[in-house]
Amino acid sequence: MAPSRLTLALENGALLLPADGRIAVFAAPAGTDLSALEKNRTQIIQGQFPDYAAWVRAGWDTQVSPKGEFAAAVVFVPRAKAAARALVHQASQVTGAGLIVLDGQKTDGIDSLMKAVKVLQPLDGSFSKAHGKLAWFTGGDFTDWGARDTTLAGGFVTRPGVFSADAPDKGSVALVEALPKDLTGRVVDLGAGWGFLARDILGRDGVTHLDLIEADHAALTCARRNIDDARAEFVWGDATSFEPKALADIVISNPPFHVGRAGDPGLGRAFIRAAARILKPTGQFFMVANRHLPYEAELAEQFREVAEIGGTPGFKVLHGAKPRRQRR
Length: 328
Hints:
It is a single chain. The protein is an alpha/beta fold. Helices cover 27% and strands 30% of the residues. The chain has helices at 5-11, 49-57, 81-95, 110-120, 170-178, 196-201, 217-226, 265-278, 296-302, and strands at 23-26, 42-45, 61-63, 72-76, 99-105, 125-129, 132-138, 150-151, 157-158, 185-190, 207-214, 232-236, 248-253, 258-259, 262-263, 279-290, 303-311, 315-323. The protein has a seven-stranded mixed sheet with strand order 3-2-1-4-5-7-6, with helices on both faces. It has a seven-stranded mixed sheet with strand order 12-11-10-13-16-18-17. Strand 4, helix 3 and strand 5 form a beta-alpha-beta unit. The chain starts with a helix and ends in a 5-residue tail after the last strand.
């Protein structure tokens, strides 16, 4: 593993962390090089389940939200501007306006975040490497950067950084419009987000149970607020490895297809395989995808019947029935 910007800056003396006290590390992706930090005084704050689980397996103190007080914080800058600012605010709160280190790629907005910070507090230093930057500062009042929930039409609540925080995703809207009205039985929503699809599904009296599976803890927290129905069960976890209590009659999904900025159809294919695995032999799968994504071959491999049942110029709604492969 190549040393990270953080490791290089600490090893060459450009950046100095406090000699005592704990270090909070916000939103570090799994596999990030944190070798320059002392594991016994570091807490990783991570709300994405696959990353969270990987850090736990690696033996780090890992939490969804920070626990306790800290002498310094490292923030791995996310792409969403509001989410990045909210993390800076949170880091400032838990460190008592102590040392905050920002680490981000230029393509994810590190330069604009640094400029915004400097309006409120001068930087103490910076370090550039590998198309990104490290910057650090101490102090400043970032109260106005705190996360603020958004209420959308229909009363849906979202938070900065969750997928489609400003409005329902167009793909999800297309899926809702194409879904049959007579769905019944046990339903699973793989990648449920903040609950837009789930609320529509639960509008059908024939649905007896709905599992909402979501990797983003913040999005699932919103879903809990948006869905008030005893038939709903909320699961923070990895949709591709989810094991239901009973095989499902219906699976629905608007699967993600990005890792960072890079498109990865493999994620959607993994969702298709998961759907086939958790469905009854007579089960049905409904998914939506951007039209350019090549999912039909995987659907044909996993289901005996495959068809396009709706969509828009930008999205296609696909249906698979009678899965070929069952759990072993």
